[in-house]
Automatic annotation (TrEMBL):
Gene3D superfamilies: Cytochrome P450 (1.10.630.10). Its cofactor is heme. One of its GO terms (molecular function) is monooxygenase activity. CDD domains: cytochrome_P450. Belongs to the cytochrome P450 family. The chain crosses the membrane at residues 26-48. InterPro entries: Cyt_P450, Cyt_P450_CS, Cyt_P450_E_grp-I, Cyt_P450_sf, Cytochrome_P450_monoxygenase. This is Cytochrome P450.
Length: 539
């Protein structure tokens, strides 16, 4: 081997030489490692965003503006464009909306993944679109408990909603209020229907009769919060709770306090004398008797049921009756059913209310078409999939009730008012009707509210001929913007009524029959087409 090669092999590199050779390699390796980590992190970040990205309108685009103008109709458009699950940007963060009818029951009932969203239901929070303070859903109220505590509360509360006097109390309240109308009436019935329900509800809660002062106070409270919501629509800062709002809460609780003291006094009489005027299904009495609830908890529940609970049957009655007036064939059939059930000249019999199947279908269709509660909130407590879309933990998920009810994939011609959808024995499509929620978290007052609504409408059709007021057209598809409860944007539902007067006569076969006449000149108020719907000259 040549000497030059042997010399090179035997030469030991110096430390300085090694550092010069290795330094660039170390630097290059470090740079490559960092770059690799960045690429991997970027990939996972991109993949995560793609995985969790939920499509929806952006701030400022036309669909975004449509939702701000009218959430109830706007969300239908959002779901038609983006599918069963869609995102929507709000000042407090992105909210996820869904109408996926096939999975609604799971979202309502699966407590492993979904919890009630109560963050904005507090007298210390903001008046957001979740409930707008028409109902003061106090933090920690009986409606918001979970698990064993929730089940125990339901055991106490549920007997009230099967109260045997619901129909009687509603009929009594109806007669007291409508007697002021006289032989004919034309105007807003929404306000009176609210009063009818409130009077009946308080009677049932504690055998307490609302005073005129109480009624005026409750109307003032509701009017205050309705106006506040309308004035602050679309402006988060404009709907924060104020000192005036807190004063309204206090005034509302004062009515509850008077009822509570009344029941306590009656219980003292019962303890002393062995009997009192209290009904054993009165909720205030049941809660006091159990010894498990504070006076504050009872007052909170009272306010929820009287103020918030009254909205569902009142709105259901108003919009259903107005929709029936716009559909004379439907109205005629309902009137005929009522007359067949009670007789042409008899009073409404509480025991026969349940037999009014067609009227029940009319109310169900009214609740579908004009659902009073249009948004139901849930908080995602564990990442899950809804309609094949990944919903991250911590997300705010809101069910678009109105959009679910108006889904053309579920209902044919959903914009039409058609009670035949709910004909007796006919199956309701899965997730096609969620006006009261679903499962164990469904509205506990469903049965009571349906009985109230049927009693009011049965009394109305028995006592009056009903028609639209030609001078004031009802737009039943108008809603106050961004309200949890879908009040009409005009704040009223206007109808025209003329009292029915039944006159006995003997026909040519010497048989007694009843002819329907009216306490006013019917032809002055109603179009001939409306009269013909009842058969001939107003019969």
């Amino acid at each position: 081997m040549p000497a030059s090669i042997l010399s090179a092999l035997n030469t030991q590199p110096s430390p300085t030489h090694l550092s010069v050779v290795l330094a660039p390699n170390i630097v290059n390796f470090t740079i490559l490692s960092v770059l690799a980590l960045v690429v991997v992190a970027a990939y996972f970040l991109w993949w995560g965003k793609c995985r969790n990205h939920i499509k929806g309108p952006r701030v400022g685009d036309d669909l975004y503006k449509e939702v701000l103008d009218n959430r109830h109709h706007g969300m239908i458009s959002v779901h038609e464009k983006y599918g069963e699950v869609a995102s929507f940007p709000t000042p407090s963060g992105t909210v996820i909306f869904m109408r996926g009818n096939s999975e609604l029951e799971r979202v309502f009932t699966d407590t492993k993944f979904f919890a009630k969203n109560t963050d904005t239901w507090s007298a210390a929070g903001s008046v957001s679109d979740v409930n707008n303070l028409i109902q003061p859903m106090y933090k920690g109220s009986l409606f918001e408990t979970t698990g064993k505590e929730h089940n125990e509360n339901r055991k106490t509360i549920n007997p009230f909603f099967a109260h045997p006097e619901i129909v009687r109390a509603t009929i009594k309240a109806f007669e007291e209020y409508t007697n002021r109308w006289g032989e004919e009436f034309s105007g807003d019935v929404l306000d009176d229907f609210h009063s009818i329900v409130k009077f009946a509800m308080v009677d049932l809660l504690g055998n307490y009769c609302l005073t005129e002062e109480d009624d005026i106070l409750l109307k003032k409270v509701i009017t205050h919060f309705v106006k506040k919501n309308v004035d602050g629509a679309g402006d988060e800062s404009a709907i924060l709770l104020t000192k005036k709002d807190e004063e309204m809460f206090c005034e509302m609780e004062a009515v509850a306090c008077r009822c509570l003291e009344h029941v306590k006094a009656e219980m003292a009489i019962k303890a002393k004398e062995g009997q009192s005027n209290l009904h054993d299904k009165g909720l205030v009495y049941l809660m006091l008797k159990s010894g498990k609830y504070s006076d504050q908890a009872i007052k909170e529940l009272f306010v929820n049921l009287v103020v918030a609970g009254g909205e569902t049957p009142a709105l259901a009655c108003c919009k259903t009756l107005a929709a029936m007036a716009q559909n004379p064939v439907v109205l005629e059939r309902a009137v005929q059913e009522v007359d067949d059930a009670f007789g042409a000249d008899a009073e409404v019999d509480p025991s026969k209310i349940d037999s009014l199947d067609y009227l029940d279908a009319c109310i169900m269709e009214g609740l579908r078409r004009y659902a009073p509660a249009t948004i139901v909130g849930r908080r995602v407590v564990k990442e899950t999939k809804v309609c094949n879309i990944t919903i991250p933990e911590g997300s705010s998920l809101q069910v678009s009730v109105h959009a679910a009810h108006m889904n053309p994939a579920v209902w044919d011609s959903p914009e039409e008012f058609n009670p035949e959808r709910f004909a007796k024995g006919k199956a309701v499509p899965k997730g096609g009707f969620v006006a009261f929620g679903l499962g164990g978290r469904a509205c506990p007052g469903k049965r009571a509210y349906m009985k109230m609504a049927k009693a009011i409408l049965a009394c109305m059709l028995k006592k009056y001929i009903v028609a639209e007021d030609p001078t004031t057209k009802n737009n039943l598809d108008s809603f106050m913007p961004n309200r949890f409860v879908a009040w009409p944007s005009e704040g009223h539902v206007t109808l025209k009524m003329v009292q029915r007067i039944n006159v006995h006569r003997i026909n040519k076969n010497n048989e007694s029959e009843v002819d329907t006449h009216f306490g006013a000149d019917f032809s002055r108020h109603f179009e001939p087409t409306r009269r013909s719907a009842f058969g001939g000259n107003g019969r």
